[in-house]
Design brief:
Elements lengths: L7 H20 L10 H19 L10 H23 L3 H14 L5 E4 L4 E4 H16 L2 H15 L9 H43 L5 H19 L4 H22 L4
Antiparallel strand pairs: 1-2
Length: 262
């Protein structure tokens, strides 16, 4: 017969751990995939939170006096989990940014469909890049690094002792926006170069043979050349994922440092 007793303080501490873990699972890439049943996410969050509470997270005395004080601690833990998950998930939007630019240059910007992962209408190229990136994330076990980094964050951000440094968090967001554009244009550069040369060729042909309708002919040529360029540049995805994974690690460290109580 199992006889396990715990105090109300232990339950309150465990609920704080559950709050941060569940919010992280809700916001982090791979774990927050929409086609995963919610019961699975809830069960996974409870199991991970119990393991962290039992074996990893150091226990502290919670400093609060009223119910409102405990509610503030819950809100802080939820915000910390969301920010840690968002810091890694933000890098996923780089692929959508690249897909939007590619679709506009190739001529597929009018083609959009509902993406069950992000629950938004996305273009063809953006969805192709995003699912390819998720596949590489699974193959390279990057999702395990994300989970391990979240577990290690409890050493830097103790439960119930979160201190938000708004200047550090703001600086992290600004630096991400800079890297967001730089990495996005690096990935988009091959398609941009090929389309630039093709537009120049079509412009010369329009001057040489004005009787040809370059608008109707150029659309098919741009789509064929664009899809061919996508096919030829698919072998660059492992190198592209290295850029994004490196940025993901940097963003996680910056967000965790911005909430450190040390």
């Amino acid at each position: 017969m199992i006889n396990y007793s715990f105090s109300i303080q232990d339950l309150e501490f465990y609920l704080l751990v559950v709050t941060r873990v569940s919010c992280f699972v809700f916001a982090a890439p791979f774990f927050s995939t929409q086609n995963v049943p919610r019961r699975v996410k809830v069960g996974f969050s409870l199991i991970v939170a119990f393991l962290l509470y039992r074996y990893v997270v150091p226990h502290y005395v919670l400093h609060y006096n009223t119910v409102a004080g405990y509610a503030v601690l819950v809100i802080k833990e939820a915000t910390a989990g969301l920010l840690l998950g968002l810091s890694t998930n933000l890098c996923m939007y780089i692929m959508q940014f690249v897909g939007t630019l590619s679709d506009m240059d190739i001529g597929l910007s009018m083609v959009s469909f509902f993406d069950p992962v992000t629950r938004v209408n996305t273009g063809f190229t953006g969805t192709l890049y995003q699912y390819s990136f998720l596949l590489i994330l699974c193959v390279t076990d990057m999702y395990q690094w994300i989970l391990r980094a979240f577990v290690d964050s409890y050493e830097l951000i103790p439960t119930g002792r979160i201190s938000f440094d708004m200047d550090s968090l703001t600086e992290a967001m600004v630096s991400f926006m800079t890297e967001y554009i730089v990495i996005g244009f690096r990935i988009f550069l091959p398609i941009f170069g090929v389309m630039l040369l093709l537009n120049a060729v079509l412009g010369i042909m329009a001057k040489i043979a004005p009787q040809m309708n370059m608008f109707s002919v150029g659309m098919q040529i741009k789509i064929l050349v664009g899809l061919g360029t996508l096919f030829l540049t698919m072998n660059m995805l492992p190198s592209i994922s290295d850029f994004i994974f490196a940025e993901m690690k940097v963003m996680f460290e910056k967000f965790a440092g911005g909430m450190s109580a040390l």
